[in-house]
């Protein structure tokens, strides 16, 4: 049986719709909860797949959140070894950092269900299975620069750097393709303060989740399956 480890920073920001897909593909899944297990996990490097999930903190906030330094080391080792790695939101930002790229605040937060525009490289990647106009969940105020040697895969007007790939083994997504719209309520509760400061009405997000959730879930299954097929 293959193994997948997901580094989780906020309990409700988990593997979402990716988890049942991994189980169907015979992965044994475990979570590494940031700040509690970082110092003693010894199985990260051996995992067949490492997924680094999102969080409402910055990719360079090591002084405030020291565990980030360990996560960057895990990411660096997997990139050097060309081992399968998926970064989502903060996870993608940490990947960009590990590859020498900058991560910085945008002029505004991007929160809500909106479509992305694929680049030429994006259409040729696993993301090419995303039907035009499909709304994905965005929830971030920072963005990464595209690391040297990797390809930009997607953009939005607010955030021109939405996804990048390093070979076939590493994929960074700024948006939450994994999000299960049927479980949006914990996000609305857990990020209530951020939504208030950003002027985003949680009722709108709740309605968007109902409208776009099924399409997002179907697209995610195809995209993640195609990406997994590249190295399995």
- What sort of overall outline do the alpha carbons produce when their principal axes are compared? globular
Total domain count: 1
Q: Radius of gyration in whole Å, from Cα?
A: 16 Å
Strand segment tally: 10
Helix-strand topology string: EHEEHEHEEHEEEEHHH
Compute the separation of the termini in Å.
Answer: 12 Å
Q: Mean pLDDT across all residues, rounded?
A: 96
What about the largest sheet?
8 strands, mixed
Which class do the helix and strand fractions yield?
Answer: alpha/beta
User: Spans with pLDDT under 50 lasting ≥5 residues?
Assistant: none
State the helix count.
7
User: At CATH's second level, what is the architecture?
Assistant: 3-Layer(aba) Sandwich
Give the CATH topology. Answer: Rossmann fold
Under the CATH scheme, which class? Alpha Beta
Strand content: 25-35%
> In order across it, which strands form the biggest sheet?
2-1-3-4-10-9-8-6
Portion of residues within helices: 25-40%
What is the CATH H-level superfamily? Class I glutamine amidotransferase (GATase) domain
